[in-house]
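Researcher: I'd like a candidate sequence for this fold, 113 residues long. If you have to choose between options at a position, lean toward the conservative one.
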């Protein structure tokens, strides 16, 4: 088992999770974070840190697509292990459904800069 970031993160990008990760397996895109499933040690400390339930085990139903997305984007995006402010529109988008199809960006974020 590993953990993945789901579409709840899109347009929110809360980073409470990155500071608690003992192996620094989070990567930052323009409007979301992902977890590298090959680096994740399945400790689970990140999951309760996310206030919008954007982190879940890959054993949950319908996570196959998320595992692929997290793996592909973590290979392209910079690592992040320091907390940042969320996106300005985070409150507005936290309960919006179907964000993956409508709002996902494959552009990289800034990482630890």
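Model: Candidate sequence:
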């Amino acid at each position: 088992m590993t953990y993945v970031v789901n579409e709840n993160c899109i347009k929110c990008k809360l980073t409470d999770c990155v500071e608690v990760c003992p192996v620094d397996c989070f990567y930052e895109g323009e409007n979301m974070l992902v977890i590298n499933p090959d680096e994740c040690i399945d400790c689970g400390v990140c999951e309760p840190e996310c206030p919008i339930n954007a982190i879940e085990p890959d054993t949950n139903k319908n996570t196959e697509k998320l595992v692929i997305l997290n793996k592909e984007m973590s290979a392209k995006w910079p690592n992040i292990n320091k907390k940042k402010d969320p996106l300005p529109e985070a409150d507005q988008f936290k309960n919006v459904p179907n964000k993956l199809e409508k709002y996902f960006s494959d552009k990289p974020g800034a990482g630890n800069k």
